[in-house]
Amino acid sequence: MKSTRSLMIVSLVGTVFLFGCGANNAASGSNGNGSTAQTTQQASQGTSSASDKSNASATDIKSGVAKMLSVATDLKKQIEAGDEAKVKSTGPQLEDAWHSFEDSVKAKYPDQYAGVEKFLDPTVAGSKISPLDKQTLSKLDDQLIQTLNDLAQKVQ
């Protein structure tokens, strides 16, 4: 959401700037050759910035998915071991990791976003209850891991 707003603002400012430069050259009676080169250069710089943001968000998604997979795998081991205290502390870490990049996923991969949300919320909630329902929580965690692996495949 934040990256979408930033991109829209940059695009709007760039558009206003480009139209403003064109109006200035037309009013001054210039032949436009220099301004066309400048406009092309400015437009390509704007595209580079958007591309850089896109690459940055893809990198953020990849690292976020890797972190979530690590936490989900640890949670799986703790569930199998029946270590309720560690499960209760590890479960919320999934949500914390997800918050760091969920807006990028929501914008770029809405289907995968819905899948992660579908299994993340019950997994985190299940990790907080006592006594643990090891079978259900293990199944939810497996489904979350599968969904995260699918997202990782999509990002590459």
From TrEMBL:
Keywords: Signal. Residues 29-57 are annotated as: Disordered. The keyword Signal applies. This is DUF4363 domain-containing protein. Residues 29-51 have a biased composition (Low complexity). Residues 1-26 form the signal peptide.
